[in-house]
Amino acid sequence: MSITERMQAQGGKPSGLVGAIVGRLMNRLHRGVHRWGLDDLSVESGSACLDIGCGGGSTVRALARKASSGKVCGLDHSEEMVDLSKRLNRVFLERGSVEIALGSVSDLPYADDAFDLAVAFERIQFWPDIENDLAEVHRVLKPEG
Fold first, then answer.
1. N or C: which end of the chain has fewer CB within 10 A?
2. Domain residues of the chain, as ranges?
3. pLDDT tens-place string over residues 13-65
4. Is 122 a known active-site residue?
5. pLDDT digits (tens, 9 = 90+) for 89-119
6. HSE-up (13 A, CA, CB side) for residue 51
7. Residue 20 near residue 84, CB atoms below 8 Å
8. Residues paired with residue 71 on neighbouring β-strands, in sequence order
9. Under a CB-based contact definition with an 8 Å cutoff, are residues 14 and 78 in contact?
């Protein structure tokens, strides 16, 4: 596997020491896209939000600030990213306003109609079964989500 292929794989599922570095870089390099995407979203203070492929946790943190009396769940299939996201969002986790879990978009570990909003910044290209995965997102969104 070439270095380019290895770096692309790290973008899809960061792991090991390189993955930890990639996660921190993603938090910095994707900040502008995340802000752009979240600025125009109507996130009420009591919203229930889901960040699929939460990576290093910066979007979870931004959503938790907007949904200050709501709940934000971050999900990632990389243990390293779950750990990094938990560290970044420690205060929100302690308050109980954020949960971070290990899991897959293909089998979301949440109830039907659980979320007002779901986001997945720069992740969809890594989803294994786009049709099923979008159906899973639809399942966990509330009817007006």
1. N
2. 3-140
3. 555 665 666 666 666 666 666 676 778 888 999 999 999 999 889 999 999 99
4. yes
5. 999 999 999 999 999 999 999 999 999 999 9
6. 30
7. yes
8. 48
9. yes
The per-residue pLDDT for 52 is 96
37-71: b (≥16 Cβ within 10 Å) or e: ebeeeebeeebbbbbbbbbbbbbbbbbbebbeebb
Q: What is the CATH number of domain 3-140?
A: 3.40.50.150
Which pairs count as long-range contacts for 33-37, CB under 8 Å and 24+ apart, including other chains? 33/121, 33/122, 34/58, 34/59, 34/62, 34/121, 35/62, 37/119, 37/121
- Which of 122, 131, 136, 144 is catalytic? The answer is 122
What does the chain come to in residues? Answer: 145
